[in-house]
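hiii so my PI (J.) wants the whole complex modelled not just the main chain, which honestly fair. so below is everything: two entries, each one labled with what it is. i double checked the lines twice but i was tired so who knows lol
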Amino acid sequence: MEASKSLPANNDNTRSKRQYLLGALPVEDTTSLEEDFFSDDATFEEIEIAEDDLVDAYVRDELSPAEREQFEKNLLGIPRVAERIEFAKVLKQATRVGSQRSAIKRDPGPRKHSIWQSFIAFWSASQQFARVAGALVLVIAGTSLFFDWLRLREESRRLAFERTELQRQNEILASSTDAEKRQLLDELKSREALNEKLMEDLESVQNQPRRPILMSPIVLFPGVSRSPSGSDDLTLPSRTAMIRLQLALESVDYPSYNAEVRKGVDGPIKWKGNKLKPFTSGSSKILELRFQSARLTPGNYIVNVDGLNPSSEPEFVATYNFRVVEKGD
Amino acid sequence: MRRSLTLWLKQLIASLLPTDQQPEGEAESQAPSPSDSSSKLKWTPTPEAFEKLLTCLSPDRNEAAKRYEIVRLKLLRYFEWRAVDSSDHRVDETFDRVMRRIDEGQKISNVMAYFYTVARLIFMESLKERGKASLIVESTATTVGPAQLESEHDDPRTRCFDECLEGLSEENRKLILDYYQSEKREKIDLRKRLAGELNIPLNALRLRAHRIRKGLEDCVKSCLGQYAEQK
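here's the output for the full assembly
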């Protein structure tokens, strides 16, 4: 028997069923197969499937010449098989590669509801894509969250450690600060005590009588005045000062002199000095008077000078004039 | 001549019957006797005999009815495949003979084997009419050749096919169209791929496609009947 052109004869069972239908199976095998298909429904169904394949192969011209002859001799005469052949031809048309006529025509959905069907198809595809994408996003997000969680846990541990360390350092600092504070307080107290002492000293110093400053000397000549009022001006300082009046003497006949300062010609004596010794400055002899400025007030003053003779009796020598003006700095 | 044929059939049946149905001394009484063929017209099935047959097929009545249909289909195919003419009539004859034996009190442990034995006997009886059968086959073959089977798209069969295909579920429609789509080598690869997609063995795929096809063929046949009535 010539082999089939293309139908799969996967095993002996399949081949024997084809041969049985084509009337080409040996008598013994035929009997055995018939007993089988009567007692076993599955075997019977296998033979029916073999018949399907043979009918299709016949319609599609896939049988060998020998098989075709056997088919026509044994099966084609059966009205049912003839009917099946008609059916197989329609099925062949419907499933012809490249035709797709039946696939399109037989699907009433797209013809009647093409937009709706397209939408459903698109929606289904979108949903499927969305599900896949959603699952991917979930996996990625989950992984990311897991790593974030690990990172945050590490960070949390690190921060907890740092916080503990900071608390420890804080305690150390607090204790050292207390010590420093106590030290500073002690220092402050000692400084305050020192300050107080210094203030007391200052006060005591301030309370002590202030030594008057020594003013520059004013040189006066007998009976002569260079001021417009005919006397020399003396400006009083703001604070107590020691006034120095240097009287130019015309003769040095006396070893010592008495002097008195009056406000006005007949006014009260503001200061008086006895047995004053002159000193020599160049070719001149100078008698210097020193007294505190507090004794003077603004006004015109005269200075009367008497020489003391060897018997210590005063003899008029000369008169000097000066004027005291307002106090300044 | 008739006597010698009867003896030959008697010996043949005795050799075909299953051993468990041929207890010693009962072979003749259990096996369908040659007289069955000659006396078949004298015996007519009764409701009681039919009930006994169903009980023999299965104690459950529904299951028995299913089994009856299966037996009938197997007998029909058997006679068709063995190119016996008047298959329907041969099937009825087989049922009658078996029913008669059961009604007469025959103990049958394997009823399907018994059906086959009787059917084979009837097949052999038909061998003498082989000449007529061959003539019928030849005459039929000349009228239904592949070249003459081209159908127009608008013929009733195509219309019925389209309607019946629409009646299938989307899954079954896709499967049947995909399964029979390609030709030759492509077909093998395609079917393997289909089985892979459905996650079932190739044999299971073949079975599923066969059952869908069978339903579709029945639908087309019924549709054509209605179409013929309308016409």
